[in-house]
Amino acid sequence: TLFRYFATKDELLNELYLAIKLRLVRTMIAGLDPHEKRPKENARNIWNSYIDWGVRNPMEHKAIRRMALSERITDETRRQVKESFPELNEMCQLSVKEIFLSEAYRAFGDALFLSLAETTIEFASHDPQRAREIIALGFEAMWNALHEADA
Hints:
Layout: H1 9-30, H2 39-56, H3 58-69, H4 75-84, H5 86-93, H6 106-126, H7 131-146
Helix pairs in contact: 1-2, 1-3, 1-4, 2-3, 2-6, 2-7, 6-7
């Protein structure tokens, strides 16, 4: 059984969450242009990579969405993901509205991003002929919702 390798179900969930998140983040970083300096274009590349990953990996995307809301995922596991790729974390925060960087509203900002991403993934998956347009429209909606106007 799995519990030969993991002492508890929580330990298994944390390891699974970490493995999926690290694969996702590697995919997102692979899509970045190291010479791009414009925050909006970097955000667009991150968004496109995230959405493409979600379309290609629907089961992993669904699992990560559920686990992200779980109280069983420890702060330590979340910290490991964040610290594994600090450059991506910094890039994502470059032009986010200040309020969404605060402790009080960070989770709300994350939920807005994830809700828009999930909707975009769903529609792009069901309409492959218009997927590129749907992904672009989803990006503009996310950008307008979460980013400073002058960024």
